[in-house]
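Lay summary. Proteins are chains of building blocks that fold into shapes, and those shapes determine what they do. In this project we predict the shape from the chain. Here is one chain we studied, written as its sequence of building blocks.
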Amino acid sequence: MMFNCEVNKKLLLMKICFFLYDFGIAPINPFLQTIARQRGIPVLYIGVIFTILPILNVIVRPITGYLTDRYRCRKRVLLCVSLINALFTPLIHFTPRFDQNGETEDILKYWQFWMFWGTVTVRMMLWMIGDVLQDTICFEILGEDKKNYGRNRVWGAIGWGISTFLVGGCVDWYSMGKKEKDYLPAYFIAMASLLCHFTLAFQLNSNQTTSPKIMFKDIKMILSNVKVCSYLVWAIFAGIFTAYIWFYLFLYIDDLAKIYHQERLPWIKTIQGFAVTIECCISEIPIYFLSGYILKYTGHMTAFSISFAMFSLRFFLYSIIEDPLWVLPVEMTNGLSFAMAFIAGVSYAAEVAPAGSEGTLQGLFGMAFHGIGISFGSFSAGYSFEKVGSKNAFGLLSYVAFFTCLVQISINKLINMRKK
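And here is the predicted shape, written in a compact code that computers can read:
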């Protein structure tokens, strides 16, 4: 009896590229807030930094999508940003720390602060460009089989989860006997993975044969649709909620250890890394693999409703936890909260995009989710963490997410009734 074991080499290469790219980004991105605080930057200013950085998505992602659609250069740009990022990332390690004696108003006088901010900004822009291009190239390779996007994108989540756990353990091991955590292993792992990604991405098949001559006309027509506009609004709210997890979960875990369980401090980076491993390698995998069936059954807007409800539950659980180890089981909700919203957003953009403007529509989703949502969420998280503390901030956000869920369900029903 013969079995068809033929492997789609194009999609296999795409999966490996997703894995290596996220494996190379994950050693740094989740730890940037703790790195910044270790440099002597107050939490409030960390909030300011990670409010302004995501705003760049408003410009970088749509422009990247448009220019690479217009000049048909997705693959070349992806290769460039991957190589530059690999060489640029280790520079963060050499930005010096400084002592500002708790006087946050004097922080802008320090050149070390501006050096750190500038280095992180360039690296984040490179990540944004590569991120939107990989998604667009994946949809290009899939063609009409867009429902299988999640089965390819899941390998990025797996890479991210494995990388953070590996890096957390390496940083804890390398920092034994030192007063502070030394992130040098993280920079080496990031550089090595991105160099491997650069090498393999050469073989990606990105032809961009479709001409985008009528792109602006089609996009204008799409944006005049009420459902599409509401979709962008929900993408913004999903970004706001995600910002609290992406940029402040590790600070929250640090606070739990310092206030309630100081015995966890020697291995706190391992705990944080394992938390992300659970998010990506356990919680997200079923959602990405089954995304085609889930979205076919629920629809994109209902997927957002499920996401907001799970965000509400997740934030409530954060607000009552005292032991950092109890954060680990809570991360099992990441698939139904973050991944559900993300897969709904990316898939809907691909579904409504006119031929030849796939990158532009992915850029618009990135602008809403990353540029506006993540940016506002970073600012509100930094402000609320500073004023009421991490646990209380998550408690308040739980109510906001629940109210957003109710409003989203109501508006979605009104839009559907109007169509009928």
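What the prediction tells us: DSSP finds 16 helices and no strands in the chain.
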